[in-house]
């Protein structure tokens, strides 16, 4: 997100605009907690994870009367448009705000979950996958040395994009995701079949919304008699140095968001589709759903033979 903030500030200034940074997401908009940013305020942030502006899940912004207040405050402060950086909640709030209050809003898709539709990628996802993969690779060393089954829980309350990507890249024997039904008994059968072929260690990746690692671990130990261990990666997946890909994408998104505001766009999300940066209507994004690529799950299963 910092690379996106930097790009918005510097592109905006480059176009002769004044750019204000809003603290704590929509809450900062409601409390008029914003201040002007110059080029120096975004110096040295490109390599830092998180957001220098801080973030919050705003309960108040869910209510129309608060959104009206926020728009009035913006007008009083002579702010002409809003660029938001975030996931599905931010996009929904931004779309409501633009539609009801006629404030121009451009969204930049940012979510480690990568569940935002109509864009091939959201900022943060690739970095989160690399973090999960690094953990899987390290666990593989000890799983192999000690002949163990390891269950690794990654983030994803409602979807399994991180699990699928990190699981496929990490050579997982099974990947459990919330979108598709799974049978732990069958997973155990596969582990046992692997054992008879000489496989002595295995890795299972589960998205937090599919099954908790501890439960899967206990089930496997009980059913197979194989010594299993588990690891919950948690919020470490949301921090750390952003990958080169994420920094470049965030920079492109930030610049594109400023350009669309300057061109007079009303309610859009910047996106990348087939390698090209563009923008799509916010209401269409909100109505759409991003589907998991089940081919990747099939591929992971074939690779685990
Ligand atoms: O939406 C991003 C996400 O990181 C999910 O993958 C995760 O389940 C959730 O946020 C955690 O939210 P919180 O930090 O509020 O516990």
Short structural summary:
By secondary structure, this protein is α/β, with parallel strands linked by helices. It is built from eleven helices and ten strands. It has helices at residues 2-14, 25-30, 64-76, 88-101, 125-145, 161-169, 184-196, 213-224, 244-262, 282-287, 294-303; strands at residues 19-22, 34-37, 82-86, 105-109, 149-154, 174-176, 202-207, 228-232, 267-273, 276-281.
Describe this structure in words.
The protein is built from eleven helices and ten strands. It has 305 residues and is of the alpha/beta class. The strands form three sheets. A four-stranded mixed beta sheet has the order 3-4-9-10, sandwiched between helices. It has a four-stranded parallel beta sheet with strand order 6-7-5-8, sandwiched between helices. The model has no long low-confidence stretch (mean pLDDT 97). 6-O-phosphono-beta-D-fructofuranose (F6P) is lined by residues 87, 111-113, 155-157, 208, 238. 6-O-phosphono-beta-D-fructofuranose is lined by residues 87, 111-113, 155-157, 208, 238.
SSE string, helices as H and strands as E = HEHEHEHEHEHEHEHEHEEHH
Poorly predicted runs: none
User: How far apart are the termini?
Assistant: 39 Å
Helix content: 40-55%
Question: How many strand units?
Answer: 10
- Judging from the principal axes of the Cα atoms, what is the shape? elongated
Number of helices: 11
Structural class: alpha/beta
Give Rg in angstroms. 22 Å
Mean pLDDT: 97
> What profile does the largest beta sheet have?
4 strands, mixed
């Amino acid at each position: 997100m910092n690379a996106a903030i930097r790009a918005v500030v510097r592109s905006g200034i480059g176009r002769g605009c004044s750019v204000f940074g809003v603290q704590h997401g929509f809450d900062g908009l409601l409390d008029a907690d914003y201040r002007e940013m110059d080029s120096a305020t975004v110096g040295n942030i490109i390599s830092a994870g998180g957001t220098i502006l801080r973030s919050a899940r705003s309960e108040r912004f869910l209510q129309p009367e608060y959104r009206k207040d926020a728009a009035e405050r913006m007008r009083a402060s002579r702010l002409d448009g809003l660029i938001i950086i975030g996931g599905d909640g931010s996009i929904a709030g931004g779309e409501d705000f633009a539609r009801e209050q006629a404030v121009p809003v451009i969204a930049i898709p940012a979510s480690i979950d990568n569940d935002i539709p109509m864009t091939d990628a959201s900022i943060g996802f690739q970095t989160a996958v690399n973090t999960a993969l690094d953990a899987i690779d390290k666990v593989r060393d000890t799983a192999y040395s000690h002949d163990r089954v390891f269950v690794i829980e990654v983030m994803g309350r409602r979807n399994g994009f991180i699990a699928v990507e990190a699981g496929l890249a990490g050579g997982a024997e099974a990947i459990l995701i919330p979108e598709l039904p799974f049978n732990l008994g069958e997973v155990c059968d596969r582990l046992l079949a692997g054992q008879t072929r000489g496989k002595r260690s295995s890795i299972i990746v589960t998205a937090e919304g599919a099954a908790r690692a501890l439960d899967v671990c206990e089930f496997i130990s009980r059913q197979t008699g194989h010594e299993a261990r588990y690891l919950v990666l948690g919020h470490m997946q949301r921090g750390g140095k952003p990958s080169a890909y994420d920094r470049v994408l965030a920079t492109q998104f930030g610049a594109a968001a400023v350009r669309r505001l300057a061109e007079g766009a009303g309610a859009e999300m910047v996106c990348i589709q087939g390698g090209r940066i563009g923008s799509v209507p916010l209401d269409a994004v909100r109505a759409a759903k991003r589907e998991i690529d089940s081919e990747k799950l099939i591929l992971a299963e074939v690779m685990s033979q």
